[in-house]
Amino acid sequence: DAGVIQSPRHEVTEMGQEVTLRCKPISGHDYLFWYRQTMMRGLELLIYFNNNVPIDDSGMPEDRFSAKMPNASFSTLKIQPSEPRDSAVYFCASSPPPGYEQYFGPGTRLTVT
Amino acid sequence: TQLLEQSPQFLSIQEGENLTVYCNSSSVFSSLQWYRQEPGEGPVLLVTVVTGGEVKKLKRLTFQFGDARKDSSLHITAAQPGDTGLYLCAGVTSGTYKYIFGTGTRLKVLA
Fold it and tell me: How far does chain B reach from its first CA to its final CA, in angstroms?
């Protein structure tokens, strides 16, 4: 089992640019979670999906953030336009039913200059 | 706003010592989890507790869920350098998968 796959592992971009983070969950897992981790705020849930449907996006900080899950094996988190305060490590996690065992990916370290 | 406070924030101990990490909240959780995270990696699930008063053991690690399901503790016996990492608790309330993560405890075990 390859585990949760995230790409890219590192992203450096300039303020105002669009950023797209990608996630491939573990096969058979029907829950997918996007988190953001910073030193100041710790690990925060942004959004989660069940069977490709967004269930709770109340953690998405602003309209600049959007997430999609077009199929069971792929999800994206997009930031447009990016700002320096978006700099963080973004994690994707997936879970088999009933959704209480999260397996995290290695994360994407995003730096916005 | 639900908060999970962990204490201590930082802990540096010698190999062989025992330690306890605490996770406290004013909210009631239907289940609570403990994770360990190493630098450059995602958190790894250690245990899930769901019943008030529940105690689970994982080798040298003992996890307890408070009777009121508002707090939890992680006790490590005879710590080893391999236990070094960031320990996170996470709680979820009934009917949702909206996990709230604790503030974290950074543990360093010196050989």
Answer: 40
The minimal CB distance from B41 to the residues A99, A102, A106 is found for: A106
Cβ <8 Å between A33 and B41? no
User: Of A31, A53, A103, A24, which Cα lies nearest the Cα of B97?
Assistant: A31
* Amino acid at position B106, single letter: R
**pLDDT single digits (tens) A51-96:** 999 999 999 988 999 999 999 999 999 999 999 999 999 999 999 8
In chain B, DSSP assigns E strands to: 5-7, 10-14, 19-24, 31-37, 44-49, 55-58, 61-65, 71-76, 85-92, 100-101, 105-110
Q: Which two tokens stand for residue A71?
A: 């199929």
